[in-house]
Amino acid sequence: MLMVFGMAMTIGFGPEEHDVPLANYQFDVFREVITLEAQFDKKDMESAVLKEGQKQVTKEELLSYFWFNTSFFINKVETQFQLCDFRTDEEHYYLNVELPIDPTPLKELKVFTTCLVKEIADHSNILFIDQGKEETRGYRLHKGRIHTTIEF
């Protein structure tokens, strides 16, 4: 009986592969700067950004898309990010940016993002905030919740 079940699982009666549409945002908070590594699924980003005939999203296109769909407020002041790195691998695009904390000290970070939530059904942007002191908090943003405020 186990052999029949095992064979059924290998020929397609088992669970289907599941792809969860999400992007990860890893924030690290330091004294005078917040760093962010944003990780986007390549297929999702390409379906949202690529123009006909293109094969890959360029750094400039991803940066423009991210800038248009994301805002940061530090201590209630809109803060422009500075690009530090852009890279890609077989499955993801990565943006590394810095947000200067001005004025200091950091009391509040507000993040607005609509990246991929309009283009990809059920997409979520997962934010992880590492505040040092071995404390990490996570937040899920999606079509129904496009912003969050983190108090420090």
What does this structure look like?
The protein has 152 residues and is an alpha+beta fold. It has one domain. It is 20% helix and 43% strand. The protein has a 6-stranded mixed β-sheet. The longest helix has 12 residues. The radius of gyration is 19 Å and the shape is globular. The N terminus is likely disordered.
Question: Which helices and strands appear, and what pairs or packs with what?
Answer:
Elements: H1 2-13, E1 22-29, E2 33-41, H2 42-49, H3 59-69, E3 70-74, E4 77-79, E5 82-88, E6 92-100, E7 108-113, E8 124-130, E9 136-142, E10 147-151
Parallel strand pairs: 1-8
Antiparallel strand pairs: 1-2, 2-6, 3-4, 3-7, 5-6, 7-10, 8-9
Helix percentage: 10-25%
N-to-C CA distance: 58 Å
**Widest sheet, order of strands:** 5-6-2-1-8-9
- Number of domains as seen in the coordinates: 1
Strand content: 35-45%
Q: In one word, what is the shape?
A: globular
Radius of gyration: 19 Å
Low-confidence stretches: 1-18
Provide the succession of SSEs. HEEHHEEEEEEEE
* Overall average residue pLDDT: 88
Q: How many strand elements? A: 10
Instruction: Tell me the major beta sheet.
Output: 6 strands, mixed
Number of helices, counting only DSSP H or I runs of 4 residues or more = 3
Q: Structural class of the secondary elements?
A: alpha+beta
List descriptors.
4-stranded antiparallel sheet; globular; 20% helix; 3 helices; alpha+beta; 152 residues
